[in-house]
Amino acid sequence: MNQHVVAIFGGAVSGAEAAHQLTQQGIRCVVFDQNLLPYGKIEDGLPKWHAKLRDKEEANIDEKLSHPLVTFVPGVKLGRDLDFEDVVQNWGFSAIFLATGAWRDRPLAVPGIDDFTGKGFYYQNPFIYWYNHKHEPDYKGEQCEVADGALIIGGGLASIDVAKAVMMELVEKKLAEKGIDVNMFDLERGISKVLEKHSLTLDDLGLKGCTIVYRRRIKDMPLYPGETDTPEKLAKAQTVREKVLNNAAEKFLFKVMPCHLPVDKIVENGRLAGLVLRETKIEDGRVLEIPGSDKEVHSPLVISSIGSIPEPIPGIPMRGQVFDVEEGQCCKLNGFTNVFALGNAVTGRGNIKESLAHGRTVAQTIAMNYLIDPEGNVDESFRKKESRVDGVMGDLTKHLASIQPPDENQVTAIMQRVKLLQSKVGYDGNYKAWVEKHRPVRLEELVGH
Questions:
Q1: How many whole angstroms separate alpha carbon 37 and alpha carbon 32?
Q2: Do the beta carbons of residue 191 and residue 172 sit within 8 Å?
Q3: Which of 115, 148, 200, 390 would bridge with 204, disulfide CB 3.0–4.6 Å?
Q4: Is 413 in the same domain as 431?
Q5: Under a CB-based contact definition with an 8 Å cutoff, are residues 207 and 147 in contact?
Q6: CATH of the domain at 44
Q7: Per-residue b/e over 354-370, b at no fewer than 16 CB within 10 Å?
Q8: Are residues 278 and 397 in the same domain?
Q9: Nearest residue to 208 (alpha-carbon basis) of 153, 148, 161, 133
Q10: Domain of 344, in residue numbers
Q11: How far apart are CA 287 and CA 304, in angstroms?
């Protein structure tokens, strides 16, 4: 066996693939994850209507992390439970890989709006986390309220997911009041179809629906992963973007307000009660605000869905809102010889953004389910993400060859520390038994879907 021992922080797609590549070289890996399960946004950010895809991808991760050379450490967060500089300087790992993802929402540029979190305002990440887990009998996390007439700020695929979730919650509740029993899986096939089947409309249910507010035009929305480097390709992409958005809006009955951005908040009785929106125009690809166009739009709920960024970790250098890595150095962290970043920690793109060329995203391919096969696209996106990690790991394993591996005493000390962390959360080293014990109750199990 290779004597190197590598630490990987984050066990989801990028981290699991890194572990897989290293174990194929006979290198021992210690995979730390902040959660009890290593699935990251596959579990907590991919909306739960993608149940089959979720199960498939989690099984893929399980296979990689079950390798005999992988030691899994659940419930340990870098920067909270472990000090980054202490791990780098004192633990003795040959190398450290950061695959910690992008869990922090990009701040919404409305002064003081964060003061109203939970009072008429949510960010996307905690909202979708709640949506994915609220059905669990033992769920004790943050509770979110869904209200009719919600404003969703953003223009990416994640904003469509938020709009879908809001509309399905509203419609399911209203149908239940009429004695019509439907679940999320029924509605995900199309709210419009379900209502048509029962000869109902949103008006009949007393609903207005939610509205996505986007600062650009609909044809500018990042809803299509195709190239746009020629006028012909750009025109095609713009046409597809409009089709994707319009099909989604017709299917799930939400509205879209393009060319508007929020500039201020409306507050009533200590709660957020809407936004002041300003009109925009697009010139030479730039968003220009139109003076004197402000309007008050009252709403009982605002959800910001404008992207995710890596959580800052004390000791890790940042460049803007992402980790500071050296270009052309295998994503080596600036100022460190053996610390490397992978996936969303480098790109700063959330919602399971994939790492291929720091470009296309799972969220983008999910959007294509309004035009073409969704599961095939998402599967391809995960595979491309793994391919990106694979390519980087080839260079990194060569880099490891020049590093002195830890000696026997250092390896023993590392594993003793690891065992202590495992014992604190009650993990006995049986990975398969652990994930079976901690896998959440699935909605499809509860509704018999």
A1: 10
A2: no
A3: 200
A4: yes
A5: no
A6: 3.40.50.720
A7: bbbebebbbbbbbbbbb
A8: no
A9: 148
A10: 5-103+309-356+373-447
A11: 19
Cα–Cα distance, 263 to 291 (Å, whole number): 12
- 40-53 per-position pLDDT tens digit: 999 999 999 999 99
Q: Total structural domains in the chain?
A: 2
The pLDDT tens digits for 193-230 are: 999 999 999 999 999 999 999 999 999 998 877 788 89
Angle formed by the axes of helices 124-133 and 157-177, nearest 10°: 40
Is residue 341 within a helix (H) or strand (E), and if so which, with residue range?
Answer: strand 339-341
d(CA 223, CA 234): 13
Give the separation between CA 426 and CA 420, rounded to whole angstroms: 10
Q: Token pair of 153, please?
A: 């700020």
Domain boundary among 306, 329, 346: 306
In angstroms, the CA 51 to CA 365 distance is 16
Q: Which of 364, 412, 354 is nearest to 388 (CA)?
A: 354
295 and 326 fall within a common domain = no
In a domain, 361, yes or no: no
Contacts of 113 (CB under 8 A, 6+ apart): 121, 265, 272, 302, 304
pLDDT for 403:
80
Contacts for 411-418: CB closer than 8 Å, 24+ residues apart:
411/3, 411/5, 411/92, 413/92, 414/5, 414/30, 414/91, 414/92, 414/93, 415/71, 417/91, 418/30, 418/71, 418/73
For the chain, helix (H) and strand (E) counts, in that order, are 16, 20
Both tokens assigned to 136: 């669990």
| Position 442 in a domain | yes
pLDDT of 296: 98
Please report, in angstroms and rounded to a whole number, the separation of the first and last CA atoms in the chain. Answer: 46
Residue 363 lies in a domain: no
Query: pTM, whole model, 2 decimals?
Result: 0.89
Residues 409, 285 share a domain: no
Chunked in runs of 10, what are the mean pLDDT values of the chain (449 residues)?
87 92 93 97 93 94 97 97 97 94 94 98 97 96 96 93 97 98 96 98 98 97 84 91 93 98 98 98 96 98 95 94 78 90 69 34 34 48 65 72 86 97 97 97 92
Q: Can you tell me the distance from the alpha carbon of 311 to that of 237, in angstroms, rounded to the nearest whole number?
A: 32
- What does the longest C-alpha to C-alpha distance in the chain come to? 73
Q: Is residue 278 part of a domain?
A: yes
**Residue 390: its pLDDT value, please?**
67
Residues in the chain: 449
220 contacts: CB under 8 Å, gap ≥ 6: 155, 238, 241, 282
Q: Are both 263 and 346 inside the same structural domain? A: no
Tokens 């669990």 — which residue? 136
Are residues 317 and 345 both part of a single domain?
A: yes
